[in-house]
Q: What sequence folds into this?
């Protein structure tokens, strides 16, 4: 599964800053950071369920926003990238 | 078409702050802001091409990141939302 995780965490409080770090840390286990608050993940259904559950339990529903997008088809079908691109496509042959 | 526009604009300079405002303004013409730097758009192919062209010409390729995602299927198939949700689904019946 190709998944996109986007979040806006309210960092006006120390707790909010902690939530932001925990959300980012949770995402880095399975996903690649492609923008400040945006991660792309190539994961299986079990990993996705685990990550989703983890993130839901970190955010504050009244202060934060978490949007998870399910992306379908091959990469070139679902994303167009302009400017700086931090994504490494591990499916492509590695040219040494 | 359902489109998601995500951007990270480098605002260290006055020009960068101007680019950020112009990107956001361009998106608001067709799309709904769902997070700080994230817009969801329900648009036709012609509008999409116009908006994409506009955005490509605003950003600085060396400093900014623009990622455009094409979302397929019905909303419940491509997005899961937790916490604050700013999106208004105009396709749903309006309950007065």
A:
């Amino acid at each position: 599964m190709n998944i996109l995780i986007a979040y806006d965490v309210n960092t006006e409080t120390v707790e909010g800053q902690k939530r932001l770090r925990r959300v980012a840390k949770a995402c880095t286990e399975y996903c690649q950071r492609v923008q400040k608050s945006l991660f792309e993940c190539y994961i299986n259904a079990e990993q996705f369920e685990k990550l989703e559950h983890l993130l839901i339990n970190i955010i504050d529903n009244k202060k934060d926003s978490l949007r998870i997008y399910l992306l379908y088809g091959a990469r070139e079908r679902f994303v167009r990238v302009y400017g700086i691109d931090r994504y490494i496509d591990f499916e492509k042959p590695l040219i040494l």
